[in-house]
Specification:
With 241 residues, the chain is mainly β. It is built from no helices and 17 strands. β12 (167-177) and β13 form a beta hairpin. The relative contact order is 0.17.
């Protein structure tokens, strides 16, 4: 159009067409690993990428056309509109449940099922607790830890209840316990801290996305009538997925 025709002859000119193209982009919407953008040709259906993004603690449901919209397309689905679009990952949070695992009794180094109530000098824990049996084997213990093993779950919160007055400081660690008996030798990463007051209960939140093999709940402070805090924790529940 707008060119110059110089031949001395009649002619019929035929239109030459190139199909329009459109860009389909992907937004992980809080996750990671969104597919690369694709090109859609006018009048030709596009098969969307089968790559699914990931997000810790969430299940990928599909693709929406807005950040807060409903699922409109599945991964690997068909896009037929002749328009550019950005598709947003749609997520569903994984519900946290009480995690069950075995625990270590620090005073004898033995493993027990998490639902066991131990009466051999240890403390009785509630059902479904993930850890029990505090380290230390004498009445002068003023701090200690409880351990899980073979957990391999992502812990998002820990609910701790204490038996004694005063403030009990809590530190939560994740890692690998390298010693099978008493004690907590291992490779540990600190995950969160908190405190419990006066025979109370506290929920400690973790910004954790790693499924550690073991967890350690370390405590100090909180005294009984004799001025010691041994076996202070009466229940400990871990929630995650």
């Amino acid at each position: 159009a707008g060119g110059t025709y110089s031949a001395n002859a009649s002619v019929t000119l035929y239109a030459k067409w190139t199909a329009n193209t459109y860009t389909v982009s992907y937004n992980a919407n809080g996750g990671a690993g969104a597919p690369s953008a694709q090109t859609k040709t006018y009048g030709v259906n596009l098969t969307l990428s089968s790559t699914k993004p990931t997000r810790s603690g969430y299940t990928f449901l599909g693709w929406a056309t807005s950040a807060s919209g409903s699922v409109a397309y599945a991964a690997g689905g068909t896009y037929s509109s002749n328009a550019s679009v950005t598709l947003y990952a749609k997520w569903q949070e994984i519900s946290s449940t009480v995690l069950t695992a075995k625990y270590i009794m620090g005073w004898n180094g033995q493993a027990y099922d998490a639902t066991d109530a131990n009466g051999n000098g240890g403390v009785i824990f509630g059902s479904n607790t993930t850890s029990a049996g505090q380290s230390g084997n004498n009445s002068s213990q003023t701090s200690g830890s409880i351990y899980t093993f073979s957990t391999n779950r992502v812990v998002k919160s820990v609910v701790v209840q204490t038996a004694y007055q005063g403030t009990t400081s809590i530190t939560i660690w994740g890692g690998t316990r390298t010693y099978g008996g008493k004690g907590g030798a291992g490779n540990w990463t600190q995950l969160a801290t908190g405190s419990v007051s006066n025979q109370g209960t506290a929920t400690i939140q973790l910004s954790n996305s790693t499924a550690y093999p073991s967890y350690k709940i370390q405590y100090s402070g909180g005294m009984n009538a004799n001025g010691y805090s041994y076996w202070n924790i009466t229940s400990c529940y871990m929630y995650g997925y």
